[in-house]
Amino acid sequence: MKQISILLALLPALAWADFKLSSADVPAETTVAEKHVYVGYGCNGGNQSPALQWSGVPEGTKSLALVVHDPDAPVAGGWYHWVVYDLPSTVNSLPTNAGSSVGDKLPKGARSGRTSFEGNNFGGPCPPVGHGRHRYNFTLYALKVPKLAIEQDTPPAEAERRIRAASVAHTGFTVYYAR
């Protein structure tokens, strides 16, 4: 009986094993290129969000959400670099610089949430000098709702809490940056 319970507990994970997020611009486990690094706070990168693609979205997914987070930032809760939600479930990629302040490269209906930079667009890595190598977690959530009740000024940690509450699966990868 215990084995059946374990198998039943693993079924959702097995069903979503094909749900994958990747990027040709920032391959998993690599260092972020300068064109994606923030402009400001002493950083002089290009501040372009990387191109992303995904596959294996779980059947029944109503929408998607993306969160880019630095858990190593020296602030409580880490630092949110990008929050995008209400991505149509039929979309399977975002082009380079989809997170620009103009927002014209996001799919129709998608919205950018507030980040720790106090804006609603992508902000690249820019850890404090000498603080060591930071992790940047790109997480894509499959959601059971077509739209989230998140205002554009909702703090990013609260937005992610609501995203997680509506999530049926998630996938992601980690990249690194230090200065």
Task: Please explain how this structure is put together.
It is a single chain. It is built from 2 helices and 10 strands. It has helices at residues 2-15, 156-165, and strands at residues 20-22, 39-40, 43-44, 52-55, 63-70, 79-88, 93-94, 111-112, 134-143, 167-177. The strands form 3 sheets. Strands 8-6-5-9-10 form a 5-stranded antiparallel sheet, with helices on one face. A 3-stranded antiparallel sheet has the order 1-4-7, with no helix packed on it. The protein is globular and about 45 Å long. The N and C termini lie far apart (53 Å). It holds the Pfam family PBP. Residues 98-122 are annotated as: Disordered.
Whole-angstrom Rg: 16 Å
Q: Name the quaternary structure.
A: single chain
Can you write the helix and strand succession as a string?
Answer: HEEEEEEEEEHE
Q: What overall geometry do the principal axes of the alpha carbons give?
A: globular
Strand order of the largest sheet: 8-6-5-9-10
GO molecular function: protein kinase inhibitor activity
Protein name: YbhB/YbcL family Raf kinase inhibitor-like protein
Keywords: Protein kinase inhibitor, Signal
Region (Disordered): 98-122
